[in-house]
Design goal:
Layout: H1 2-6, H2 11-27, H3 33-38, E1 40-48, H4 53-70, E2 74-81, E3 88-95, H5 98-105, H6 108-117, E4 121-129, H7 137-144
Antiparallel strand pairs: 1-3, 1-4, 2-3
Helix pairs in contact: 4-6
């Protein structure tokens, strides 16, 4: 592969080729049923002190985005809030496995999130979940594309 890329006439073609190759790999990712059974799924219920809400949401948005973009084992960190009570934050977290979650906790972006938001959180409850129908997950991600 390295020899193949080295023979492209310009850097522009190399970049285009690598972009297409990476895109195809990402779009073709479909976790097997065995991989899905190893997944760690969690819902975090977080109550934020009202005066910190906007600051907290900005930090959380940065952290969740970095986690999904940078960490291959982070499948989903989807933050949301209750419409009727915006201080009530919920996160859907899906990790490839327990090891991916443990690695996530050690990343600089998570450490920054945790240390800067500690004073903003009134309560935190982590709820471990199991998928009732893990086979359907492939369809969910296919529809999002």
């Amino acid at each position: 592969m390295k020899h193949f890329i080295r023979n492209f006439p310009t850097m522009r073609y190399k970049i285009i080729f690598l972009f297409i190759l990476t895109s195809l790999m990402i779009l073709s990712f479909k976790p097997s049923v065995a991989q899905q059974k190893d997944m760690m799924i969690r819902i975090a219920e977080i109550e934020i002190i009202p005066e910190y809400l906007e600051e907290y949401k900005a930090i959380l948005k940065e952290e969740s985005s970095a986690s999904v973009k940078i960490e291959p084992g982070v499948i989903v960190i989807f933050p949301m809030y209750q419409k009727e009570n915006p201080n009530q934050i919920r996160l859907l977290e899906i990790y490839a496995n327990r090891e991916a979650y443990e690695a996530h906790l050690k990343t600089p972006h998570f450490q920054h999130y945790k240390s800067t938001t500690l004073k903003m959180v009134k309560s935190l409850k982590l709820i471990e979940m199991s998928a009732i129908d893990p086979e359907t997950m492939q369809e969910i991600f296919r529809k999002i594309k």
